[in-house]
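Postdoc handover notes: sequence design on the structure in folder B. Input tokens:
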């Protein structure tokens, strides 16, 4: 099993419904805060179940939700199929989007599941789809020095504030015994330092910067904002 297959099923990553709801609400609020105008065309790439996507869609002109997992897309269609401001896309359908048509692309908590080659490939696609003044925001990037223990502490703190501490503790135990742990041990997660991310984004034709606050609850991880750079402005 690889990471793509892993996400095409119900996973123990969320400790329960409350965790999932609070997580997706926080991420949706953070994405909504990035939307530059009510007309903006926004892509949430690797969106997962995006439980509050309707709120994000209400704040922009059009929301594209793209995820590799067919199961995730089926669930999105069930919930959001009737929302004319939302389009659900498989990764291979991204090329159908008009070039230079997006104002904002948000990628939250995906990079750890991509190889560096996959990341470079998709950066090229994202760059092509962004308007000249568009913005790419890549969030929840795991630095090399962040261990599963740091992630667990961040989750427990989120759970304490969110009132799901007991289920979070059980969830951590379930994850430790699950396929997630097995695949992490076999394939690993991709980690990047701040300097590596800046270099990768520059190589891909972006002007990047680290943003102080990470999207979501885990402030040990990093967010980067990047604008496409064109040869004339190099
Ligand atoms: C950790 S979840 C993050 C979901 C959401 N962005 C969030 O912040 O909660 C990772 C998601 O990325 C999707 N994914 C995995 N590999 C992908 C790829 N190569 N391209 C697009 N999506 C991918 C998975 O199906 C899963 O829904």
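Designed sequence:
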């Amino acid at each position: 099993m690889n990471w793509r297959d892993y996400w095409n099923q119900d996973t123990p990553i969320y400790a329960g419904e409350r965790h999932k709801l609070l997580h997706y609400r926080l991420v949706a609020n953070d994405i909504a805060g990035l939307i530059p105008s009510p007309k903006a065309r926004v892509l949430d790439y690797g969106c997962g179940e995006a439980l509050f996507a309707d709120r994000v869609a209400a704040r922009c002109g059009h929301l594209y939700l793209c995820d590799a997992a067919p199961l995730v897309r089926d669930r999105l269609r069930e919930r959001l199929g009737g929302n004319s401001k939302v389009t659900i896309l498989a990764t291979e359908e991204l090329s159908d989007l008009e070039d230079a048509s997006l104002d904002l692309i948000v990628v939250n908590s995906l990079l750890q599941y991509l190889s560096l080659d996959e990341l470079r490939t998709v950066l090229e696609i994202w760059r092509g789809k962004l308007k000249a003044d568009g913005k790419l925001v890549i969030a929840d990037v795991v630095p090399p020095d962040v261990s599963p223990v740091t992630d667990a502490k961040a989750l427990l703190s989120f759970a304490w504030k969110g009132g799901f501490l007991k289920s979070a503790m059980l969830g951590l135990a379930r994850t430790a015994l699950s396929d997630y742990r097995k695949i992490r041990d076999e394939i690993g997660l991709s980690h990047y330092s701040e300097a590596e991310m800046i270099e990768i984004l520059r190589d891909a034709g972006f002007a990047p910067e680290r943003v102080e606050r990470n999207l979501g609850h885990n402030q040990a991880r990093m967010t980067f904002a990047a604008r496409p750079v064109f040869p004339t402005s190099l």
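Context for whoever picks this up: The pocket of S-adenosylmethionine is lined by residues 3-4, 7, 27, 46-48, 67-69, 72, 91, 108-110, 113-114 (CB under 6 Å). Don't rerun without checking with the PI first.
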